[in-house]
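Lab meeting prep.
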Amino acid sequence: MKGRACAVLFVLAVVGCAELPHRANVPVELQPSPNYDERRPNYVVLHYTSDDTAEQALRTLTDPTRKVSAHYVVARDGTIYLLVDELARAWHAGESYWGGDADLNSASIGIEIDNDGEEPFADAQIGSLLALLGDIKERYGIPAANFLGHGDVAPGRKVDPGRLFPWKRLAEYGFGLWCDPPYPEPPQGVDDSMLLGAFGYDVSNPAAAISAFKRHFEPDNSSEEMAQQDRALLSCLILKKQNR
């Protein structure tokens, strides 16, 4: 009996070693530990494909020479395509930043929405997106404030999902934040960059951060400057983020 138990333990040890990837380029002794878990995403980053069809986007996102991918694509007809395991790191955000995190690819699920950037988003598409976001949020416990656009995490470089994206509707379901007037008075003596940075934006280029903020929360506001009303809106969003 003792010999059999030892044999079982030996088999288990061999199996455990076989399942442990050996990535180092120097000699190592394998000693597998069960004390780990997989990557846990804490953000969702939304994009538009900028293509005319989902098929075009899928070709790009699965082309090994393009070095770009996403976890999901949501087609205009509502079909959801899975491209990359949620627990793997897809290449969708690129150089990015939000609230101190400078590598959104490593911390997020990327969703490409089939849209050329100039058209309204289809109802069937948004319905499927809401269902997908609800499923993701439930499984990972992602905070409402962490549902973002590519333009939010890469201001000055990206603008998707664009001014036509229905952020308010998503926020009503708990995916992203939204404030309607009247807004609280913004704090005195705090400049725009400090407010934008407190919300999460990269403010190394203040003009780009302002543009990204307005594209998301004030899509009809074409001003390049922050007015008192804009600061009040931003203050409201910061308060909501702190209280979630």
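Slide two material, second protein:
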Amino acid sequence: MSPEASTLASTGAGDMPRLRGDLALVAEMIEPGARVLDIGCGDGELLAYLTRAKEVDGRGIELSQSGVNACVRHGLSAIQGDADRDLADYPSDAFDYAVLSQTLQATRNPRLVIEHLVRIGRHAIVSFPNFGYWRIRLHLLARGRMPETHLLNHAWYDTPNIHLCTLKDFTALAAELGITIERSVTLDGAGRPFSLDPRGSLANLLAEQGLFMLSRRG
């Protein structure tokens, strides 16, 4: 989660934390009262909102101890864990929704992580930055160096983002794995949606990030 999103400590008991644009769209996809696992939950921004606004049964996994501590301070259920190692321990269909927001590109084995997401949850919701975005392409073409954006804001030598992909890469992998894309949204950098088909070349060029709801076929 972005540092500026960490506003939970200052919100009162009756106040709703304001969500980052893409997280607001994630929240819209989740039914009230659902069982939700938020992988890479950060300081619990999404979990806190879902717990208050939709009364979900929410659980979080976060790699950083500081993020887990923040969640616990806010009364959220979260444990320290790694998506690459720990998702295998969860039983199938344990949750209604498994959420992986802006984390897929930082996993060591994204293919296996996606397979676990659709096994653990009846629905999986995944968002990630689109490496096919036109500004990234132009930066590589004009400067010949790895680009930095506000979504990919690390230098190449210290970035946690080790498996970058485009929207077309992701939809091709979903097809290869036999995963159904139930819903998809293309977004700009601020999380505002475009009316573009994420499977198309125009979306792959213009969208800065993608958001997908997935499920197993059959």
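Talking points for slide two:
The radius of gyration is 17 Å.
DSSP finds eight helices and eight strands in the chain.
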